[in-house]
Amino acid sequence: MDVNSAFLNGVLEVEVYIQQPSGYEIKGHKDKMLKLKKALCGLKQVPRAWNSRIDKYFQENGFNKCPYEHALYIKIKDGDILIVCLYVDDLIFTGSNQSMFNEFKEVMTKEFEMTDMGLMTYYLGIEVKQQKDGIFISHESYAKEILKKFKMENRKLISTPTEYGIKMSKHEEGKSVDPTFFKSLVGSLRYLTCTRPDILHAVELVSRCIESPTTTHFKATKRIFRYLKCTIDFGLFYSVSNYYKLVGYSNSDWGGDIDDRRSTTGFVFFMGDIVNIWMSKKQTIVTLSTCEAEYVAATSYICHAIWLTNLLKEIGLIQKEPTKVCVDNKSAIALAKNPVFHDRSKHIDICYHYIRGCVARKDVQVEYVKSQDQVADIFTKPLTSEDFIRLRNLLGVTRSSLRGRVGS
């Protein structure tokens, strides 16, 4: 559902004055100002005023605001649940009872001027195909738009978004490229990573070079577009399942950035067999060993795991067992489980030892996984074509016609 003229529904909490509009001045009082009684579009206070208004309405009508995701509202009634996600003036809702949907639409339409958009098929550039056996999401139309916008639709196809083993520096040789154009290019690709985890690391690599891009960086970016053209209809399929146990993979590429020697953290969460959260990000510190880099990456993963576990609990998907994190470094696992390793870890900042408390409380369970089974590898380093496709299948990134996960 969409709220029509949402910002006009806000209630101003501060006094705001405006000049009299041209042509509507009051005779004899042209030197006076008008005091607003209601919000107007264009005021910097309006977004907050609208959000406060609808937040108050939700909480006065039986909804609980999720403390772990402030745009999420939950209503439980007679064992049924209604979940509403608010994005500015758009509402996405789902739940377990059709009558709750109808009631919700009726009361919202009475309170606000609303447009019922029906079953979600397109949202913020994301295409949604809802079927009996699951939901497929992709950015196919958006991908075609940016390929055309940047004149990349006729490029030669390629099977991976990055060249195997590439180490990219901010100071690569080549002629300078317009930074504004390059930022637009990379920014367009970043939005695609919402449904395309397979290109996340490649986009993250070129994002590091947006301040002073050269033709070498531009060539690496064009390769992502060539891969995108080859996989234009790829996306994620979320199948119907009652299995929602949370499992994750955490990995790092030690000293992978050749400019500052910082490592890259990569992790991914699966709920049952379905991927739902992924990240590739350069670490904020320089680590002294592979063990330490993996330890820092696992800590970042576990912070997200605790947040996600709490969020799932709010919507009734309680994780009864510790959240499993799979790491391919035995030293990092030992460091997380055994506080006796003092000499090896005393230089590590206290914030990264958060993982030890979580392991001790059995909030999470750290387990070893072989490197060839480490799904998070795809978020930390450029891979061979064979390894990349294998891990892409494990992530569940597939064509819309295949509708489902290829790997296991």
From TrEMBL:
Alphabetical list of InterPro entries matching this protein: DNA/RNA_pol_sf, RVT_2
Pfam families registered for this protein in UniProt: RVT_2
CDD domains reported for this sequence: RNase_HI_RT_Ty1 (cd09272)
Residue ranges of every copy of the Reverse transcriptase Ty1/copia-type domain listed in the record: 1-163
Protein's UniProt name: Reverse transcriptase Ty1/copia-type domain-containing protein
Organism of this sequence: Anisodus tanguticus
